[in-house]
Design goal:
The chain is of the alpha/beta class. The protein is built from five helices and seven strands, in the order αβββαβαβαββα.
């Protein structure tokens, strides 16, 4: 196969990927429904409307995802640092992840934040049809997506974004 015959399929694939990213980006800019809820492994119901006024970090992960596992220490650090200031963190295990593995991993890693199963992909669909992990969303106190990334997040960048949302929350309280 010569190089000229590879150009057309390569361009088609690249354009298809660009269209997908544009579509996915548009789908994920919509506010998270106030009635959307998660159920934690302990049975606690977490309703997005009840979390309004707080920044919420939502991460989609899987026990078989090496990058997801690599992010866990950073997520624990962010949670421990910012939870007392109002940050909520929900780790959503993908539908293909066996629940017993998720429970084992949460216990083994001693996760301090909420972990939820996405048995029917409802959560992944709410966030624009997530299929790749890790996928991380930072929801502002207004319930809208303030930041998102597909793939590993940069810890310092995410820390700064959380600090900024918490600062804005404080400014709104004192001056609002």
């Amino acid at each position: 196969m010569n190089m000229k015959s590879l150009w057309a399929p390569t361009i088609i694939i690249a354009l298809s990927f660009a269209v997908f990213l544009f579509w996915a980006d548009g789908k994920m800019k919509t506010p998270i429904a106030g009635s959307h809820s998660f159920t934690s492994l302990t049975g606690e119901k977490l309703v997005m409307s009840a979390l309004r006024g707080k920044p919420v970090l939502i991460t989609f992960w899987a026990t078989t995802c090496k990058n997801c596992i690599a992010e866990i220490p950073h997520l624990i650090e962010l949670y421990n640092r910012f939870h007392t200031h109002g940050l909520e963190l929900i780790a959503v295990a993908m539908a293909y992840d066996p629940p017993n593995r998720v429970v084992q991993m949460a216990q083994m890693k001693n996760l301090p934040y909420k972990v939820s199963l996405d048995i029917d992909s409802r959560h992944a669909n709410t966030f624009g049809g997530i299929w790749a992990t890790p996928a991380t969303f930072l929801i502002g106190s207004d319930g809208k997506i303030a930041w998102k990334t597909i793939g590993m997040f940069e810890p310092a960048n995410l820390k700064s974004r959380i600090e900024e949302l918490l600062k804005l929350k404080k400014d709104q309280k004192c001056c609002g």
